[in-house]
Amino acid sequence: MIVVGVLGLSACSALGPEASAHPPVAIARDHLQGFALTGRFALRQEGKNYPGRLYWRHDGDRDELLLSSPLGQGLAEIVSDATGARLTGSDGKSHTAATADQLLQSLLAYPLPLSRLPDWLRGCNPDNGDMALDTLGRPLRLRHEDWLIHYEYDSDDPQALPNRLFVEREGGLELRLRIEEWQMLPTALPAKSCTQ
């Protein structure tokens, strides 16, 4: 299976920046456009688990996603922007496509909508999916087409960003994301509305 090939690549070096020595700063969900985050993920497909770590930088139409093993060995780098998407594995081989979604579809043989994840992370609902809010008015659950996203928070702040996302697709794919640190990036783009 290609998932094993993408997520099970051997590596010689760790990917991603070192953890910041600065204490975390609260970031308001409604003001987040460009961001960088670090965390852990677990992808479950067809009864198999693929755990790892990630660093993701989302700035305008450019995404840089670095995946590593739970112990920090580099697995893959995905870079996408208006000119296309490229995945480079730890073996140095590259794969390209017009978009990150098409790239992941071709490699995983399963749709994983990387283009929607920035909105889902912020709890945005741009396509009028079925959104449920918690008692503080924050996203709790979003059903979008055949995807279901659950949100959990470490803070009681009404503007808190989620620290855990559970993304499921009917048919068997599950993605669990534990976000350890959020960083807001300055961006020249106008604020994008976030409909809940």
From TrEMBL:
One Gene Ontology biological process: protein transport
This protein's UniProt keywords: Cell outer membrane, Chaperone, Lipoprotein, Membrane, Palmitate, Protein transport, Signal, Transport
Lineage of the species this protein comes from: Bacteria, Pseudomonadati, Pseudomonadota, Betaproteobacteria, Candidatus Accumulibacter
Transmembrane segments: none
Protein name, per record: Outer-membrane lipoprotein LolB
InterPro entries given in the database record: LolA/LolB/LppX (IPR029046), OM_lipoprot_LolB (IPR004565)
Superkingdom assignment: Bacteria
Subunit structure: Monomer.
GO CC annotation terms, alphabetical: cell outer membrane
Family recorded in the similarity comment: Belongs to the LolB family.
Pfam families hit by this protein: LolB
Compartment(s): Cell outer membrane
Membrane topology: Lipid-anchor
